[in-house]
TrEMBL record, chains A, B:
Coiled coil: none
Name this protein carries in UniProt: Polyphosphate kinase 2 family protein
Biological process, per Gene Ontology: polyphosphate metabolic process
Domain spans labelled Polyphosphate kinase-2-related: 43-269
A Pfam family that the UniProt record links to this protein: PPK2
Organism: Kribbella soli
Taxon lineage: Bacteria, Bacillati, Actinomycetota, Actinomycetes, Propionibacteriales
TM spans (from-to): none
Signal peptide feature range: none
Single GO molecular function: polyphosphate kinase activity
Length: 289, 289
């Protein structure tokens, strides 16, 4: 499924290599939404494995944060996309929730306001790019501008068609300025979505998450799949690759995205910053107070 | 220590009542930095008690968040102030870290930039006020404008002197617009600070947290205590009260601030939003897809 093809950057082994989308044509029907690629164990094992990632991912996060506080210019941007109920919020709550919230910059993108629209679709995205040392997380993103915008015909085909290249240029610009981009498509089946929407309608503590518009969007499922395929295919660049995360099992999804984040942090390998002062001198100054 | 005085709002019982600063003159030397007010148990008990707050505080946070997503206009703003090493970051990491990062808006205030300064000291603070349903956390705040600004004479006495009233007006405005303000002063002793700075100088993974300027600030300890006393005394209003958190024991500090947040959430008592659609109709519409 995730065979490396020529021209696609190797992801450094590990889970990323297994979930990376190979360059070339994308057919989402060939991706199993219930897979647990790279993990052998039960649901309970998976939940425990996620918890156990906490200390390590949090330690690496602090290193990156420290680097950013001392002149480093790197950051990570995790882009989360997926159909309603695919679990973008769940990944943030259970995966990102393992980390220090001080080092996270989470942005949830809703329909753009008129003020945002007139500045071009990438303007508000740029505002949300993580600062040095931070892990930025996008709950939806500029990809909505080639997903809902395309499916709902919010702009002409000519406009959305040009956006793929605009996105690639934008992401290349970010990469060049020190942002490591990780794009995860949370892949669920239409049946699983139905079950999750039913759950929301059966539990009064979840009514607020339900919107009648969700059913209307659901009816356009095939159109969305086509739009996702195009987005993944046309914006799957070596520097800003797409991962397809099987997401019918929530525990696997949370573990997988967090593992990908951890692998990304380790590859960046931020080191504890050296002192930019003389330690012995400072010890003496402090002792004298 | 935290006896209720006339004119000061009752904090609804619990830990808040015990740590609330009574109206009137403030003498920080009468507040024990090593106290464990309201908690009986060991350090390990305290750490466990904090962990155990997780599910409850996180549930209430989600209710507030849900309320904000469905038209509610309330939010919480936790202001953290304290000398270097007092643990503002620690409270966020270990206390706020128990919650869903999606519902947190954390802002760390550094020295203002020229662009910020020319807009008045409250401008950048207003930018960071939490959205409806969010818990905002300020790591330092507008209080620096009557703390370091006063101690370091960054502005004339006439200017900082007027700021207390300006802050009170600003906070009253926020309160009126639905923001519940909780101000915590993390109270440590000068000796404890010395020990923590020594620790930073002895551990290469902590060098990045150390700044030679910290020792210079430390030399002004009495001036800072005076400035803190004035700030707490003059800006201790019924709607935006100050709590003094004994902070020489990190575990107690984290538990205490988190408990205060929990009590605040419970007092707001946000309820799960009712459905603004007909549940049965939606179930049928969904079933038909």
């Amino acid at each position: 499924m995730a065979k490396q093809k020529k021209g696609q950057k190797a992801a450094g082994g590990g889970l990323r290599e297994q979930l990376l989308v190979p360059a070339g044509e994308v057919d989402l029907t060939t991706y199993d939404t219930r897979a647990t690629t790279g993990f052998s164990g039960t649901k309970d094992d998976g939940k425990l494995a996620l918890e156990n990632l906490g200390p390590e991912v949090s330690d690496w996060q602090e290193r990156l944060f420290a680097e950013g506080r001392t002149g480093g210019e790197r950051s990570i941007l995790l882009v989360l996309q997926g159909m309603d109920t695919s679990g973008k919020g769940g990944v943030i709550r259970h995966g990102a929730g393992l980390m220090d919230p001080q080092g996270l910059k989470i942005t949830s993108f809703k329909a753009p306001t008129p003020a945002e629209k007139r500045r071009g679709f990438l303007w508000r995205i740029r505002q949300a790019v993580p600062e040095h040392g931070m892990i930025g997380i996008f709950d939806r993103s500029h990809y909505e501008d080639v997903l809902i915008a395309r499916v709902r015909e919010l702009v002409t085909p000519n406009v959305w068609n040009r956006r793929y290249d605009q996105i690639n240029e934008f992401e290349a610009e970010l990469t060049a300025s020190g942002v490591t981009i990780v794009k995860c498509y949370l892949h669920i089946s239409a049946d699983e979505q139905k079950a999750r929407l039913e759950e929301r309608l059966s539990d009064p503590t979840k009514y607020w998450k339900y919107n009648p518009g969700d059913v209307d969007e659901r009816k356009l499922w095939p159109d969305y799949m086509e739009a996702y395929q195009a987005a993944i295919e046309r914006c799957n660049t070596p520097d800003a690759p797409w991962y397809v995360i099987p997401s019918d099992r929530k525990w696997y999804r949370n573990w997988a995205v967090t593992t990908i984040l951890l692998e990304t942090l380790k590859e960046l390998n931020p080191e504890w910053p050296a002192a930019d002062f003389d330690v012995e001198t400072e010890k003496k100054r402090l002792a004298a107070t």
